[in-house]
């Protein structure tokens, strides 16, 4: 068995990106993502439109992933798919397709927790990429999630803290909407923040006990701040856009880093890994690198393509589960709300 190559097809369809990837053992052969541009016009993901687009995209995306990997369907060892959490309609498309294909090929089916996958993306073998040793702390930050997780082994994870309301990605998007920026606003705020003064405007950090987060109060504070300032100067946002973005980003990063430092202090763990779409943010990456030098952390930052929703991270979990013979029954159901 050790000498045989294990080929895993990963399928990700939890939100608005349809993705398929092929893994040979722990190495990526292909990772194809079809984005849905239609949601930008609505300022957010429209669930019904997302599920329809998945239905259109899933067959060509899987076909392209297999073709790019240079293998045939008959070589696949198993199919891994996102069971949840996510949008129910979107998850159903990926779940149904994975079941049908696995049944047709008579190979094992492996269900994957999307949140675990963001963390375990660090175990994809890449040149010059170090894998975190156990135990480590993982901070998963995205449009739908903000969590700090203690990871004791591949499948033993404990959530130490999470958002009690909005996720960090949502705070970026809603702030961007107030400033007249497009959707998603996170990358645009990050870009403009690099041109501004992070201490130009002060926003109060929410007081939340323990390791939990809250971003709804900050969102409201930014809205009221912009409304107040534009009453006296209608061009306030235009005149101060870079500084506003820099100040918002500075506050958000401060909230994340305060909690991460507290988690490291409480657990005594100094290996810190990040994941999720917002981990692509340059300010967050710099703050982690600074902490590496000042605090003595070792930080683990995934390749950009493994931060946003992608099937490569689903496939690596599939590979790790395959080694454990942890397969799913064919009556497994998609679940919109799924805990680590």
Question: Care to give the gist of this entry?
Answer:
By secondary structure, this protein is an alpha/beta fold.
Number of strands: 10
Per the principal axes of the C-alpha atoms, what is the gross shape? globular
- How much helical structure, as a percent, in the residues? 40-55%
* Low-pLDDT regions: none
Based on the coordinates given, report the CATH architecture of the largest domain. Answer: 2-Layer Sandwich
Strand content: 15-25%
Distance between the termini: 30 Å
What's the CATH C level of the largest domain? Alpha Beta
Protein structure class: alpha/beta
Summarize the biggest pleated sheet.
5 strands, mixed
Number of domains: 2
Account of the 3D structure:
Helix 1 (47-69) runs parallel beside helix 2, helix 3 crosses helix 9 (311-323) and helix 5 crosses helix 7 (236-267). The chain is 42% helix and 18% strand. It is an alpha/beta fold. It is globular, with a radius of gyration of 21 Å. The chain is built from nine helices and ten strands. The strands form two sheets. Strands 3-2-1-4-5 form a five-stranded mixed β-sheet, with helices on both faces. Strands 8-7-6-9-10 form a five-stranded mixed β-sheet, with helices on both faces. The longest helix has 32 residues, at 236-267. A hairpin with a 2-residue loop joins strand 2 and strand 3 (27-34). The chain has two domains: 7-123 and 307-323, Nucleotidyltransferase, domain 5 (2-Layer Sandwich), CATH 3.30.420; 136-301, Nucleotidyltransferase, domain 5 (2-Layer Sandwich), CATH 3.30.420.40.
């Amino acid at each position: 068995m050790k000498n045989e190559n294990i080929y895993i097809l990963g399928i990700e369809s939890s939100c608005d990106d349809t993705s398929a990837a092929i893994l040979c053992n722990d190495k990526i052969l292909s990772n194809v993502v079809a984005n849905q541009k239609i949601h930008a016009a609505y300022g957010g993901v429209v669930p019904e439109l997302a599920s329809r687009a998945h239905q259109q995209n899933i067959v060509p995306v899987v076909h392209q992933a297999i073709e790019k990997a240079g293998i045939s369907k008959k070589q696949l060892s198993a199919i891994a798919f996102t069971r949840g959490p996510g949008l129910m309609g979107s998850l159903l498309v990926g779940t149904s397709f994975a079941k049908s294909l696995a049944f047709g090929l008579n190979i094992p089916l492996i269900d994957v927790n999307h949140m675990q996958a963001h963390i375990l993306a660090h175990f994809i073998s890449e040149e010059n990429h170090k894998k975190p040793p156990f135990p480590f702390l993982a901070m998963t930050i995205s449009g739908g999630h903000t969590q700090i997780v203690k990871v004791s082994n591949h499948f033993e994870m404990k959530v130490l803290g999470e958002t009690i309301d909005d996720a960090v990605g949502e705070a970026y998007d809603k702030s961007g909407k107030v400033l007249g920026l497009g959707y998603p606003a996170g990358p645009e705020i990050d870009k403009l923040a690099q041109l501004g003064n992070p201490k130009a405007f002060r926003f109060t950090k929410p007081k939340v006990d323990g390791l939990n987060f809250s971003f709804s109060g900050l969102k409201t504070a930014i809205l009221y701040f912009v409304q107040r300032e534009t009453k006296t100067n209608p061009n306030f946002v235009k005149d101060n856009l870079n500084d506003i973005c820099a100040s918002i980003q500075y506050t958000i990063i401060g909230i994340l880093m305060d909690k991460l430092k507290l988690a490291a202090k409480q657990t005594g763990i100094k290996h810190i890994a990040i994941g999720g779409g917002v981990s692509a943010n340059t300010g967050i990456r710099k703050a982690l690198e600074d902490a590496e030098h000042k605090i003595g952390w070792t930080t683990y930052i995934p390749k950009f393509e493994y931060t946003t929703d992608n099937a490569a991270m689903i496939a690596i979990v599939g590979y790790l589960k395959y080694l454990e013979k942890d397969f799913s029954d064919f009556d497994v159901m998609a679940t919109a709300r799924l805990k680590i």
